[in-house]
Specification:
The chain is of the alpha/beta class. Helices cover 29% and strands 34% of the residues. A hairpin with a 2-residue loop joins β13 and β14. The two termini are 26 Å apart. Mean pLDDT is 85; it is low at 85-91 and 120-130.
Length: 235
């Protein structure tokens, strides 16, 4: 299945570069290219595309202003020469943020994310066995079955992890990176010391995740990926 896209950039060289990159990737189908957001908006009133590659700073209508007009589920890859603009992109469904000059390698990394979000990943894994809903962990002299749904959050403690369950806490000899690799998609790393089960999140406010009476910090290192996850689930 082809992924339809358009490019918007007021710089002809940048537009030509992206068009050339798209031609090299079989999964992408270029539906249009535009030098300004107004022209693109007119096209989008009559046509739907899977993803929009757009510059941010443009005359008449900026990339952010265009995103603010379109439906919230419209997927974007923002492009700019100014890194500070990334801080303002969390309000939209942003798959990636590309900083000029864009290399083909970096562009390909963004496309990989797009493919995962638009169904390529689901197709590739079709027919595999259902994902496990539990794991076994050794705690002291015990081997304990842990249901993923019962885990509220996990806190790293150097060589160990503290697994906070609904009714108890378990100390397991395991590094955070190793633990993260064992968990299904409902778990998100929000801090070097914390992994949260998103099923137990009650609210997110002021860079903190709240579950029950506990507030877990969201660090700058993990904020981008975590906010993208929240945007995907936003009504």
């Amino acid at each position: 299945m082809k992924i339809s896209c358009i490019i918007i950039d007021d710089e002809p060289n940048a537009l030509a570069l992206l068009e050339g990159y798209i031609e090299k990737i079989a999964s992408l189908e270029l539906a249009g290219k535009f030098f300004d957001g107004v022209e693109a908006l007119e096209f989008l009133k009559r046509n739907k595309v899977d993803v929009i590659f757009t510059d941010i700073q443009m005359p008449l209508l900026t990339g952010f202003e265009l995103a603010d007009i379109l439906p919230r589920n419209q997927k974007f890859v923002f492009i700019t020469a100014y890194a500070e603009h990334a801080l303002n992109s969390f309000s939209f469904h942003v798959i990636d943020y590309l900083l000029k000059p864009i290399t083909f390698k970096r562009f390909s990394q963004a496309v990989f994310k797009i493919e995962a979000l638009t169904g390529t990943e689901t197709i590739a894994t079709a027919g595999k066995a259902p994902q496990e809903t539990f794991l076994f962990a050794k705690s002291g002299r015990q081997i304990i079955k842990i249901n993923f749904d019962d885990i509220v959050f996990i806190k790293g403690e150097k060589e160990y992890v503290n697994i906070q369950l609904k009714n108890e806490k378990l100390l397991i000899y395991k590094r955070m990176k190793e633990m993260e690799a064992l968990l299904p998609g409902q778990f998100k790393r929000v801090h070097v010391s914390y992994i949260v089960n998103t099923q137990h999140i009650q609210k997110v406010i002021n860079n903190q995740v709240q579950t029950g009476n506990i507030k877990i910090p969201v660090s700058d290192s993990y904020k981008d990926a975590f906010m993208r996850f929240l945007e995907e689930k936003m009504m």
